[in-house]
Design a protein that fits this description.
CATH superfamily of the largest domain: DNA methylase specificity domains
Helix content: 25-40%
Radius of gyration: 24 Å
CATH topology of the largest domain: Adenine-n6-DNA-methyltransferase TaqI, Chain A, domain 2
Strand content: 15-25%
Strand order of the largest sheet: 2-9-6-7
CATH architecture of the largest domain: Alpha-Beta Complex
CATH class of the largest domain: Alpha Beta
Distance between the termini: 11 Å
Largest sheet: 4 strands, antiparallel
Number of domains: 2
Length: 396
């Protein structure tokens, strides 16, 4: 039995679908997994739109917009401003006596994310879609309007703390990019600086790495790491927790070893910086997504320095301009990688000194990321406690 201060309903009783057209003077916004709704121009990644403003959907303050394919993973956001968004998304307009900020918090609970998944339709998880009619049918139990506001205002304090750390992390990465440009200047910038060129050399990437080398030998117990695209971050970090048997993945997947470098070849993963210097693989061996190029350093240049070159704006911008293929399926070619040229000091100790400085800058940003993760975990635990009664009775 539901207590008197709670109300049983469905999301269709709380929201309607807003289908108003966008306007030219309204900024484009995007839905992200971790940051909610953000201005598209603020994203450090490729986000193109060929649609006219009136072909977008209008989003107003207090609306919740979500990605139909990834709603169950948390791809939604509460809007605090006007914007316009892709017509492939859903915009939820709140009805009377519902606090959208409270609902945005409720949608983050494991119980509700399970329901979002259960009411989505598709043949596989990466094909699931949650359209408005199905979202509207999801059962929910909510407290009185005043209690909704009280709960959401308390939880918002945790969100503000995470937002401050996110800005610090973004600033740290911007400073790292500027430092990378100063320490590893482009050939044109270096020539115009008047420095002594004899201390540096212009290298072709194909001269210092073997591209897509032969697969590694099977380890004795057959266990290897497996890296799908999502296991490699845009900051060069790798989730090596997945393991497979060598015989199950050695055909049809690129192989690599500790000390190799990965570079995503397909758009937008390449432009967004997906890639890493590998270490800690199971038995030192791994296989992964077919959308990775594998680069094996020849020992001429410190591998950490090559990894920094592959993260540079110069490399990413040049590669994006030379991609081949149809829209949405463009890739960088092996020929581009082999021919890419970059400047590097000849002295090994100078290479190591540059790596140490850049690694330190990366670690600062990573510390902010860890702090954000800790806040997210603590807030999730608090959210579960605060909403335990609501979640436990959310069945009709």
């Amino acid at each position: 039995m539901v207590p008197d201060d709670l109300k049983k309903c469905r999301f269709g009783d709380l929201f309607e679908s807003r289908r108003e057209r966008g306007r030219a003077e309204v900024p484009l916004i995007s839905v992200t997994l971790n940051r909610g709704l953000v201005n598209r121009e603020d994203l450090d990644r490729k986000q193109d739109s060929a649609l006219a403003p009136e072909d977008h959907l209008l989003v107003k303050p207090g609306d919740i917009a979500y990605n139909t394919m990834r709603m169950w993973q948390g791809a939604f956001g509460l809007s605090d401003r006007e914007g316009m968004i892709s017509p492939a998304y859903i915009v939820l307009k709140p009805r009377a006596n519902v606090d959208p900020a409270y609902i945005a918090q409720l949608l983050r609970t494991p119980r509700m994310q399970h329901l979002l998944w259960a009411y989505s339709y598709g043949l596989a998880d990466d094909r699931l879609r949650l359209y408005f009619d199905d979202f509207a049918a999801i059962p929910v139990v909510i407290p009185r309007f005043e209690d909704q506001q009280r709960i959401s205002s308390k939880l918002a304090l945790w969100d503000k703390a995470a937002q401050v750390l996110e800005k610090l992390a973004a600033n740290s990465r911007a400073e790292k990019r500027a430092l990378l440009h100063r320490l590893l200047p482009t050939p044109t910038h270096y020539a115009s600086s008047g420095k002594q060129a004899k201390a540096w050399k212009l290298f072709r990437l194909g001269d210092v790495v073997d591209l897509n080398p032969r697969r590694p030998v099977m380890p004795e117990d057959g266990r290897v790491s497996f890296l799908p695209m999502e296991a490699v971050s845009e900051q060069g970090r790798v989730d090596i927790s997945r393991e497979r048997q060598y015989q199950d993945v050695c055909t049809g997947h690129p192989g690599f070893s500790d000390g190799d470098l990965l570079v995503a070849k397909i758009t937008p993963c390449f432009e967004n910086g997906k890639g890493a210097l590998l270490a800690g693989l199971t038995n030192g061996v791994g296989f992964g997504s077919t959308e990775f190029h594998v680069l094996r350093p020849k020992g001429m240049i410190e591998p950490r320095l090559i990894a920094q070159v592959l993260q540079s704006r110069e490399f990413r911008n040049r590669g994006a301009a030379e991609m081949e293929g149809s829209a949405g399926q463009k890739r960088i070619s092996a020929d581009f990688l082999r021919s890419f040229r970059f400047l590097c000091p000849m002295d090994r100790s100078e290479q190591l000194a540059i790596c140490d400085l850049l690694d330190t800058a990366d670690q600062v940003a990573h510390m902010y990321d860890l702090a954000i993760d800790a806040i997210v975990v603590e807030k999730r635990a608090l959210l579960q406690r605060v909403m335990a009664q609501t979640a436990s009775t959310a069945v009709i």
